[in-house]
Design goal:
The protein has 23 helices and no strands. α10 runs antiparallel to α11, α14 packs antiparallel against α15 (263-279) and α15 packs antiparallel against α16. The chain is elongated. It has 420 residues and is mostly helical. It has helices spanning 3-13, 18-22, 28-35, 43-52, 57-79, 83-93, 103-119, 126-135, 142-158, 162-174, 183-199, 203-219, 223-239, 243-259, 263-279, 283-296, 301-317, 321-330, 334-337, 343-356, 359-376, 380-396, 400-419. The two termini are 45 Å apart.
Amino acid sequence: MRNGKILRQRRKELGMSQEELADSVVSPSYLSRIENDKTEADEETLKLLFQKVGVDYRKQTSNTKTIKQLLQEWEKPLLHNERKKSHQIYIKLSPLVTDMVEIQLQLEYHIKSIRLFILQKELSKVNDCIVFLDDFYERLTSRNRFFYHKHVGNYEFYAENFEKAETHFAKAALDFTEVHLEKLELADLHLLYASALFKTNKESLCLSYANSALQIFQSRYKTKPCLKIHVLLGSCYSRARDFPSALSNYEQAKELAELLHQDVEIGIIEHNIATTNFRMNNKKEAVNLLKDAMKHKKNNNIRFLTSLNMLLNIYYEMDYTKEIQCLLKEYSHLPDQLSRETIQVKEFLFFLFFLSKPQNEWEGYVTNEFYPFLQTKKEYRQLINYTKIIANYYENNGSYKKATYYLKRALEISEHTNNL
């Protein structure tokens, strides 16, 4: 807020008239001009007026300078995902940012708080920030609008609202200008945007933005984001069946992960290389790579389960029933340690029900829980995969009517995916 609006707000909160506040300091008409920001009074006058409404003007002015400095200082650790330092600055800022602070500073504080809450995995706190910001959206500067769309897009991505994330990232790109923002902010935005585009099956655009981000990060020697981008590029090329380009990017990512001693990342890369080999019909090589991936992911249950599910899928295609039963028995405890509302747990439970429960039980799980979940999350590739598995089961057991129904459904989902 400007000084005049702060004065008017405090005067009204105290139930004072303009005449009472102006008494012995200025005329009521002059005070009216100050309150409506039509004139800027000298410091001594403002000091006296603020004193009458119980505000230390000099402290207020000093706080504004401190807030501006801290907000500027906050950008770098937020950009580089430095959680501890970002939180320390937040702790300093929070008591200073009151409703008496200039509105643009309040807006910037709430925008940057969104990024912090994402880093701290406190997504439940984000909504209050968005509600506040939406009331003042038209008053955002282009710089604050860039950060608003970038961070809200980031929030929507983590909430798995990928289409909304894509929309926000596109708007952020329109507000980027090198005059007010450093190039690394653009690279970070393009990496986020590319990730959302991959999730919405827009591989060509994903490749474009990912390569744009890679060029900037490479020029600044930023190894960690380069690693992420090579994995993303590999996944894009693999999905597009450009296997040499996919494997080349995965190998570059693996070199960087080994350089940074990131064991879980190595496991993720091994998993992606396995996926590419599976698409190339190298099933035995894919199996070996997945086993390696699981060794690297042993301390991360959700990542581990991602590779385990793929291994179960491949074993099922290879008709390795004994191996599947051993894996299901060995890791049957994992779903109890994780949220049931994750795709990894849902997929594992599918195999557990499908291969060890009576038909009526696994059909109930598929109809009432598994399929609705995949449809809600728009996990179309998994829908097609498991629909085909079920269709093949019915065909092998002579239930041709049900088999035809599920094959038709798989075809419809495939056509729907291609039209997106």
